[in-house]
Amino acid sequence: MNAGHASIPKLAVREATKAYHTASGDLLALDACSIDIQANQIVSIVGPSGCGKTTLLWSMSGLHRLSGGEIALDGAPVTGPRPEIGLVFQEANLLPWRTLDANINFPFEIKGLKPDREWIAHLIARVGLEGFGGKFPRELSGGMQQRAAIVRALSLKPSVLLMDEPFGALDSFTREEMNRLVEEIWLDRPTTIVFITHSIEEAIFLSDRVVVMSPRPGRVAKEYAVPFPRPRSLEIMATREVFDLHNAIKMDIVGARAAQKPAAFRPAATASRGYEP
Amino acid sequence: MSDAIPEFSRAGDGQKVSLTNLSAFSSGPGIRSGAEVLAILLVAVVVIGGIEASLRLFEVPHYIMPPPSTIAAALVTEFPLILPHLGYTLVELLGGFAIGAVIGLFLAAVITQFPFAEKIVAPYILLLVTTPMLALVPLLILRFGFGYEPRIIAVALAAGPMVMINAATGFRRVDSAKIALARSYGASTLQIFWKIRAPMALPMILVGLMIGAIFGLLTAVGAEMVGGGFGLGNRLTTYSSMIQMPQFFAVVLVLSTLGILIYVLFFLIGKKWASWEA
User: What is the pLDDT of residues A156-170, one digit of tens each?
Assistant: First the structure.
């Protein structure tokens, strides 16, 4: 909640560099990537696949260690997982052997805390999951699973929410619904959100800023401010300005890909995704 | 280089389960309606009645194959005599299985944490799994005599490696996203083990326990046949040497029932605790 000093960004990425050591040599996933994210801003990061978006997000969460540079939360370097940071993963990532309630209580269990019943009930009502607490994840649709995952991520009241392509696996209507839900949640309780996505539309709808990353090695290629008021209605999203912005971002991504020589092109390695111990 | 060392299972991609799958738990025959029960009973009557009729029709001698009715009668009359031997066999089975399963589970949990150590011990585990432990029974009898000890040791040796390889397959199903989830809340290695790895491995552990128990039963009966004066296996050799075939088949029936009970037990446990999978 606390924004810290006006001059200190909530989340500061400075010259973040990340190299993976693979069997076929070193792979530079991030190359001196710098982004400042102010408190309670929603910032989307878009870019071609394999550009290091997920690596960047996981580094912000403290789950990845950078090879160089620094990530700071409220001015203090992030060196490991922090309770102020909530994570929403691709495809919900619920534990299939637990009911929804048990999944939502998981963070409290790990921390040895008593679940904050009132807050959880509020969140469950907010995402519309009342009455599903006893269900197992497999009994729910992808959208509902991701709602539960959002409740879990918010259960410890983090001041930063990192979302890693959370709605990529959902159909476009469910995705839109989920986008509105994120907006509602944000309006309800402003949080700093970093949102990784492949969808430019989603990025524009949700964000205050859209950061476009270059193909690997990932660095910030361009940044766009998204000045439209919230809540962003269908009418706003249908305006000429949104359309132009969408096209500009698309040109950046497609243009950058086309500029890459085929010889230099390397398919996205598995190393850019996932977790390293 | 690592390919030169046989691995008893590939480190999976997190979802795939090798060696054994869980169809034993999920696709078992579930009885749905009265008509199904009726059909099952009808087929049973036809099959058993058919065997009975043909054995009598072709006048098959009792020492080759007694008719089902004679076996059933022998089971009823001989049961008080068979019962204590069932008890001995159960003691060997439960004792050996408990020892083998505990050691197997522990080793699986530990060894999968150290991939390098796992590679080194893999060939030996493979050897333990593939060697019929019955082969060691004469040696064990030589060393431990004709009591429970050699049998319990043989059962443990047969069940342990089976539990271990299956449990190890389970523990190796690392889902990095789920571990990352736990780590993002600052979970300790122990918490990750109990809250992520263990539940994730549970379905495979149950498969291992079931296979281990069945192998244990096999080994217990085999060991009893090799030496010693008690146990269901000993009854089999005794009855067959006296050409008491109805009694012999009555013991076989008891053994089959025991095997089925083991299967049903683990089926029910799997349904309760591992049904989230599949």
Answer: 999 999 999 999 888
Q: Do B186 and A80 touch (CB under 8 A)?
A: yes
> How deeply is A18 buried, as exposed, middle or buried, from its count of CB atoms within 10 A (0-12, 13-18, 19+)?
buried
C-alpha distances in Å from residue A12, one per residue of A16, A47, A53, A244, B149: 10, 19, 15, 29, 67
Task: Please answer yes or no on whether A85 and B195 come within 8 Å at the CB atom.
Answer: no
Order of strands, sheet of A11-22, starting from the edge strand that comes earlier in the sequence: A25-37, A11-22, A68-73, A76-77
B196: Cβ–Cβ under 8 A, 6 or more apart, which residues? A95, B175, B178, B179, B181, B182, B187
Look at residue B2 in the predicted model and tell me its pLDDT: 37
A239/A38 Cα distance (integer angstroms):
27
**Using one digit for the tens of pLDDT, what is the confidence trace for B139-191?**
999 999 999 999 999 999 999 999 999 999 999 888 889 999 999 999 999 99
Cα distance between residue A69 and residue A74, in whole Å: 16
Which ipTM was obtained for this model?
0.84
Q: A93 to chain B, minimum CA–CA distance in Å?
A: 7
Span A132-160, pLDDT tens digits: 999 999 999 999 999 999 999 999 999 99
Which among A95, A105, A100, A155 is positioned nearest to A132, based on CA atoms?
Answer: A100
Q: How many CB atoms lie within 10 A of CB B11?
A: 14
- Would the CB atoms of A156 and B185 count as touching at under 8 Å? yes
Residues of B in contact with A95 (CB under 8 A): 178, 181, 196, 199
- Nearest-CA distance from A228 to chain B in Å? 33
Flag if A97 and B276 touch (Cβ within 8 Å). yes
Within 10 A of A41 (CB to CB), how many other CB atoms are there?
18
Say if residue A231 is preceded by a cis peptide, omega within 30 of 0.
yes
| Percentage of residues in chain B having pLDDT higher than 70 | 88
Among A213, A212, A216, A215, which Cα is nearest to A27's?
A216
pLDDT number for residue A273? 43
